[in-house]
Each structure stands twice: as C-alpha cells, then as structure tokens.
Amino acid sequence: MKTIAIIDDDPHIGDLLEELLSREGYATLRAYSGTEALYLLERTRPDLVLLDLMLPGLPGEEVIAHIRGIPVIVLSARLDVGDKVRLLLGGAADYMTKPFDARELLARVAVQLRERGGDGALSCGAIRLDPDAREAAVGENAVRLTRTEFAILRLLMRHPGQAMSKSAILERIGEDTPDCTESSLKIHVSNLRRKLRQAGAGDAIEAVWGIGFRLRAEE
C-alpha cells in the first residue's frame, strides 16, 4: 500500500484529502505545520507528499528544500506563474491550484507514484517508448538513443504537455545517468530533438523559457 503525507493546516481540506485518498486505497499521514512536517518526514518515508505552501511554523517552500527523493505535489491558492516557476526549480514534482478537481488530483498522484514504480510502454502521438526493452520508435522508424537521451524522453513522455525544469529533469534521471549535468543537459536534449525530428516526429520537444523543456501533448 502506498502512503501519502498530507501537509496542510486546514483540517477541513486535510480531512477531505484523507477521505479521498483512503477510498482509493492509499494510506495517509498528517501534518499541520511546516515544523511538524519535518518532524514527520524525519521518522517516516511516505511515497508522496501533498503540500500546502501557507503553513505555520515553516513555509511550504522551505519544507520542499528539505525533501529528497520523494515527489511533492503542491496544493495552494496563491500560485501565479512566478510561484510555479520557483516551485519547479525548487524541486516540486507538480502543482495544483486550490480549489482543485478530485479526479485530476488522483490522476496526478497516480502519475507520480507510477513514475517511481515503473510502467509499461509509453506513447505520445507517433512516438512510442518501451522502457523494459529500452526501445524507441516514431511510427515504424526505430530511433537509436543514448542512455541519457532515453531517460530524458521517458521522463517527458510520462508528463506530456507539462513543462519540466532542468533541475527536476536532472534529479529524476540522475539514478540512471549520474554523468548528466546542467551544462550537458541542453546538448543531450538537442541531440534527442534532432533524432526525433529525423524519424518524423517534427518538433516534439520544445524549450520553455525560464523553466526547461516539455513534450508537446497530442491534440
């Protein structure tokens, strides 16, 4: 059973989240302040964290800075574009603005947990990726990728249409490609874009100014 930590000082919202997640078969942990959250995370290791930003004791941004290796989905009512960029660069895996749709939240939770647990073949438009066989193709055209290029494409295909910060990409592919650095990431992405374009995928990966990169979602 996957365990999700709910860090929110609003008991009503926390109760709603706990009920929603419990119905889906998740175990839950609760913390009501930033300080309590750090105390909780020192003693337990949940599979995912749902985090409000406006917390007593220690703000959510500082809590994120102490979390390593656990995906964090931020839930906050005060997310403008600047907030979102800072959170992505600061290590958040995803964000949702309050009030949120329960079905969308559950879908985003499932995506983050699936990413940590592995998944089957991925597809986005004409691009197909088989993580187990480590094979990529665009339509009928096989695409030969380096280990780092494969890891980048796999990550982007798990989040189609979502801008991924450079720091988030490096953190999430680091286990597979520890030699990839911020300075070399741009080169790897450039080579990956060229190979996909040559195979017929067009400009599938685009740069997002001030953030990083994203895979164009199929319309």
What does this structure look like?
The protein has a five-stranded parallel sheet, with helices on both faces. Strands 6-7-8-9 form a four-stranded antiparallel sheet, with helices on one face. The chain is elongated, with a radius of gyration of 18 Å. It is an alpha/beta fold. Helix 6 crosses helix 8. The protein folds into two domains: 3-117, Response regulator (Rossmann fold); 122-215, Arc Repressor Mutant, subunit A, CATH 1.10.10.10. Helices cover 42% and strands 21% of the residues. It starts with a strand and ends with a strand. It contains eight helices and twelve strands. The chain has helices at 11-23, 34-43, 60-65, 81-90, 102-117, 147-158, 166-173, 182-198; strands spanning 3-7, 27-31, 48-51, 72-76, 94-97, 122-124, 127-130, 135-138, 141-143, 164-165, 205-208, 212-215.
